């Protein structure tokens, strides 16, 4: 009996020993030994999971000895740890260093080590530091081959992105794909973005007809499986000021100069006594505001269970303008929801929907008569307000013209409002038909509505062209829509362990349609913005004052891609896309766009030897053809879009007529891209080199305005000449990027980045009948200053070349006559070069006098982390780009910049700046006197942050609390005289002409990041 009882007790203790469980306390560290918060920790083959706190600590209860813990975090390798005790320390390894990081490449993804194209990536960490108002700003200086220019520094103004230069005379913007569907990069909330991937070479051929200008792939943030809800709140507030003011003449300087000008012209002095004028009015100080507010809020909630992930976010941005305040303001609200669900083991759903609303008010800018144009040209001798406190009227005299007005009055009497609402997103399903074959279907959509309203108040500026004799209100509405349906299958297969294949085949249907309506009403009640609505205007218009349009375009595409690698060492990829577009006639609708890429991981070869120095070395090359159909609709048929006058029963009757002359033979513009480069990692993956040589040849450029016989009536209102495939252009160049990362200790780490791009642009052929395509504008009534012409860069400046200043009459007599340019030369006038050597200066002597395309662009970036402090600085430089100074009015009494103080006043006084006179000269003809080197170096962003000790923040229930301060657009180093050497109006021909660009503001911010 005793033996049986002893056996029973022994069995009980044995059973207890085998069923004993323990509580595990663990810590997760990164490669530098620093704690990682928010890491997913899961017990394998169990539903039990948790996440690490701010200290990187976690706790799991009731685990059996020998259980396996799975530790995963984005950007790091997933690791499995077997439990052998109650304490566990896991050190994560960086995926970027292992080259297993996944890169999105369009309709799929690849490991970074297997990518054979020229691809660059920006992650959310970079966006967090840069704090861009618009996403495009984050690309400047961070990615080689990408140049971002501003059309204006006004709030909400569009930005232009150029990937590897300007290759066509038409549309140059890259395609933006957001989570698989075509979207608008400028409307995204930067805080919603996880990664930005830029496809720069023929790998973009998977997008065929819309990928010729490069492709930007956006991946938005999503929740992670088995993660508790994480709340993140980011906010910053700050103030703005102009980053630059131009040195105009003060009142005394202006009066003295004007006296000299009148005297040289043989006229009476306008200011016989300049005593007491002093400094006068600095109109830029009057126009530019200080301490202009900007505020931004971002809130996001994300998380997930075993089957579902979610991410919900919202943002609010409110920015006033440094010119005009709330009359040039921008307000943007966004809301986004992302959801992923494993419906079954084989079927997965993913959806992402974004709502955007913004309101924008604008001022007249970047042109003759703009606010800044007036601020620069109104004399300092005039005061802003008269003795009665009313805004001063600028005299309507010959010397001041009829378009220069008081800029403060212009701001006060500007009334407009623009509201924009957009809903866009996608719904995608993945079905795993077999373990190797996955079918994906996706529907993407964009639907937007906008309303605009502007009011012209009845007012007189003293006989100026801006006088309004009858008040009016203009209202418009626009509805734009598109959808895309993608259906494709991906087959992944490994044969004999070493031969790896991925095949993708699919189809895309795309439709875009919309309409617009606008109308004008006159005699607004009470001459007031409050009553500016067409429904309240009763005056019957004597002319047509409304308009409308509608459009519908479609594409049907088929695509296939085969990727192969042997031991991840020899890499090949082939792409073929077939596109059919309604932009072209029945005979030319279809285009085929093939692409081939290859790579060789040399560092994996046995002969490469010890890899202590070189950790990774890959050579890659690509060649392919992409298309471009970005031209107006229905150019191949004649439409009744023009105005016509007909005779019926002896009376003239207004009607419609054919608009653009049709061309049934227009076809695809083609881009032939070639790239060869290498990727190199050194010194334990601390140093990373990327280098590329590229060439992009555009054939069959779609050139509008081809001269045709006048019998077609293409000079009538609404009519125009046809668009023809009549040109070829080429961009070629070299890219180089280097990144260095070093962790010196647990307390100190460093990251450095530098990239540079060299580009040569050349037009190879223009077969439009004249041999060139003109563009841009300079002064008043002068010929086009910019051209696209064979043998020259796209949009080069075409004018007279100067050869100093005539110092005496003997030099004038010895030089070819300049009378054909408008006036005989005199000492102190500009001397123009006789380019063709015919002994006389005429229009035949015009030549290439400048290039708006930079020879090189580069970025240098620095990040430092020391204990709880972090510092970052981002810079950008552009070298060799020229810009035309066109913001000064050629009128005798207009104000001037202070460089005229170095004018010619007698022999030997100046050989660069001509004399001043009210007499006739040829000095105002477009020449290289007005073309300046606009090279610049800009400190784009600096930021200093401090993260509160987690022991303190956790007491308040927070996993992270970070305070930071920074400055955006801190300073620009340049010799250019204008406001912004990096601005452009976006046009390929005439884009580098400065009409008085609204400067990008300098912004001081103070921000807060909180995670719960």
UniProtKB/TrEMBL annotation:
Residues 111-215 form the TonB-dependent receptor plug domain. Keywords: Cell outer membrane, Membrane, Receptor, Signal, TonB box, Transmembrane, Transmembrane beta strand, Transport. Residues 386-786 form the TonB-dependent receptor-like beta-barrel domain. Residues 1-19 form the signal peptide. PANTHER family: HEMOGLOBIN AND HEMOGLOBIN-HAPTOGLOBIN-BINDING PROTEIN 1-RELATED, TONB-DEPENDENT OUTER MEMBRANE RECEPTOR. It is a multi-pass membrane protein. It comes from the Bacteria. One of its GO terms (biological process) is siderophore transmembrane transport. Pfam families: CarbopepD_reg_2 (PF13715), Plug (PF07715), TonB_dep_Rec_b-barrel (PF00593). This is SusC/RagA family TonB-linked outer membrane protein. GO terms for cellular component: cell outer membrane. One of its GO terms (molecular function) is siderophore uptake transmembrane transporter activity. NCBIfam families: OMP_RagA_SusC, SusC_RagA_signa. Belongs to the TonB-dependent receptor family. The keyword Transcription regulation does not apply. The keyword Transport applies.
């Amino acid at each position: 009996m005793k033996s049986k009882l002893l056996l029973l007790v022994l069995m009980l203790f044995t059973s207890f020993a085998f069923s004993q469980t323990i509580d595990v306390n663990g810590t997760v560290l990164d490669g530098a030994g620093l704690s990682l918060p928010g890491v997913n920790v899961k017990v394998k083959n169990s539903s039990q999971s948790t996440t690490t706190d701010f200290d990187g600590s976690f706790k799991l209860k009731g685990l059996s000895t020998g259980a396996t813990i799975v530790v995963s975090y984005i950007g790091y390798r997933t690791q499995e740890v077997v439990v052998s005790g109650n304490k566990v320390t896991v050190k994560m390894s960086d995926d970027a260093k292992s080259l297993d990081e996944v890169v999105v490449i369009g309709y799929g993804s690849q490991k970074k080590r297997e990518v054979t194209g020229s691809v660059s990536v920006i992650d959310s960490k970079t966006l967090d530091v840069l704090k861009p108002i618009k996403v495009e700003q984050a690309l400047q200086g961070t990615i080689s081959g990408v140049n971002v220019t501003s059309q204006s520094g006004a709030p909400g103004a569009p930005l232009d992105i150029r990937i590897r230069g300007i290759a066509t005379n038409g549309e140059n913007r890259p395609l933006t794909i957001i989570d698989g569907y075509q979207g608008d990069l400028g409307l995204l909330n930067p805080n919603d973005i996880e990664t930005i991937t830029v496809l720069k070479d023929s790998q973009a051929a998977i997008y065929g007809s819309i990928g010729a200008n490069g492709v930007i792939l956006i991946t938005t943030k999503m929740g992670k499986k088995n993660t508790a809800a994480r709340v993140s709140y980011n906010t910053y507030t700050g103030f703005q000021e102009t980053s630059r003011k131009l040195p105009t003449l003060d009142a005394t300087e202006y009066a003295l100069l004007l006296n000299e000008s009148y005297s040289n012209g043989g006229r009476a002095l306008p200011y016989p006594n300049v005593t007491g004028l002093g400094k006068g009015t600095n109109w830029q100080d009057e126009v530019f505001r200080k301490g202009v507010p900007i505020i931004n809020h971002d809130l996001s909630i994300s998380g997930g269970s075993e089957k579902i992930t979610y991410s919900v976010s919202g943002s609010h941005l409110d920015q006033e303008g440094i010119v005009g305040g709330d009359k040039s303001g921008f307000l943007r609200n966004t809301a986004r929801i992302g959801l992923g669900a494993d419906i079954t083991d084989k079927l997965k759903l993913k959806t992402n929907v974004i709502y955007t609303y913004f309101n924008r008010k604008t001022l007249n800018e970047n042109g003759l008569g703009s606010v800044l144009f007036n601020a620069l040209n109104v004399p300092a001798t005039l005061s802003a307000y008269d003795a009665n406190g009313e805004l001063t009227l600028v005299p309507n005299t010959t010397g001041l013209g009829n378009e220069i007005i008081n800029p403060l009055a212009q701001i006060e009497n500007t009334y407009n409002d623009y509201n924009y609402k957009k809903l866009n997103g996608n719904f995608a399903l993945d079905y795993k038909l077999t373990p190797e074959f996955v079918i994906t279907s996706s529907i993407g959509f964009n639907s937007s509505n906008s309303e605009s309203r502007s009011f012209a108040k009845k007012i007189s500026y003293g006989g100026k062209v801006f006088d309004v004799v009858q008040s009016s209100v203009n209202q418009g509405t626009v509805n734009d829509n598109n959808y895309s349906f993608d259906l494709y299958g991906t087959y992944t297969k490994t044969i004999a362990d070493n031969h790896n294949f991925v095949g993708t085949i699919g189809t895309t249907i795309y439709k875009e349609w919309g309409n617009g309506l606008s109308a004008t009403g006159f005699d607004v009640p009470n001459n007031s913005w409050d009553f500016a609505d067409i429904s309240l205007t009763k005056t019957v218009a004597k002319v047509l004052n409304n308009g409308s349009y509608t459009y519908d375009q479609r594409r049907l595409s088929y695509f296939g891609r085969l990727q192969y690698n042997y031991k991840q060492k020899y890499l090949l990829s082939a792409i073929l896309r077939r596109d059919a577009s309604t932009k072209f006639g029945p005979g030319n609708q279809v285009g085929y766009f093939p692409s081939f890429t290859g790579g060789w991981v040399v560092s994996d070869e046995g002969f490469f030897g010890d890899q202590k120095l070189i950790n990774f070395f890959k050579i890659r090359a690509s060649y392919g053809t992409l298309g471009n159909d970005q031209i107006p609709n229905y150019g191949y048929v004649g439409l009744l879009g023009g105005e016509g006058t007909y005779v019926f029963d002896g009376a003239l009757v207004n009607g419609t007529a054919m608009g653009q002359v049709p061309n049934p033979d227009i076809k695809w513009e083609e881009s032939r891209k070639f790239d060869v480069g290498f990727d190199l990692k050194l010194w334990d993956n601390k140093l990373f080199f990327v280098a590329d040589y590229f060439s992009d040849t555009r054939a069959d450029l779609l050139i509008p305005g081809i001269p045709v016989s006048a019998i077609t009536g293409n000079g009538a209102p609404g009519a125009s000449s046809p668009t023809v495939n009549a040109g070829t252009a080429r961009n070629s160049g070299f890219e180089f990027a280097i990144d260095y990362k070093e962790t010196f200790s647990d307390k100190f780490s460093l990251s450095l980045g530098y990239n540079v791009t060299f580009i040569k642009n050349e037009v190879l052929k223009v077969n439009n009948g004249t041999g060139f395509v003109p563009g841009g504008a300079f002064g008043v009534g002068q010929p086009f200053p910019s051209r696209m012409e064979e043998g020259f860069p796209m949009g080069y400046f075409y004018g007279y070349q100067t050869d100093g200043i005539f110092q005496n009459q003997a030099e004038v007599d010895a030089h070819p006559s300049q009378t054909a340019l408008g006036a005989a030369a005199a000492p102190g006038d500009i001397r123009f070069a006789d380019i063709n050597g015919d002994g006389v200066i005429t229009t035949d002597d015009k030549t290439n006098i400048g290039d708006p395309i930079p020879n090189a662009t580069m970025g240098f970036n620095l990040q430092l982390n020391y204990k709880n402090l972090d510092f970052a600085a981002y810079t950008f430089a552009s070298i060799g780009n020229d810009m035309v100074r066109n913001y000064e009015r050629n009128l005798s009494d207009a104000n001037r910049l202070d460089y005229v103080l170095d004018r010619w006043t007698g022999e030997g006084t100046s050989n660069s700046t001509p004399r001043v006179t009210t007499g006739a000269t040829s000095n105002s003809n477009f020449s290289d006197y007005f073309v300046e080197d606009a090279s610049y170096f800009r400190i784009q962003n600096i930021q200093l942050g401090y993260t509160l000790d987690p022991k303190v923040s956790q007491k308040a229930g927070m996993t992270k609390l970070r305070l930071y301060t920074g400055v955006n657009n801190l300073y620009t180093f340049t010799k250019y005289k204008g406001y912004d050497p990096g601005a452009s109006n976006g046009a390929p021909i005439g884009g580098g002409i400065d009409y008085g660009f609204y400067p990008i503001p300098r912004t001081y911010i103070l921000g807060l990041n909180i995670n719960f």
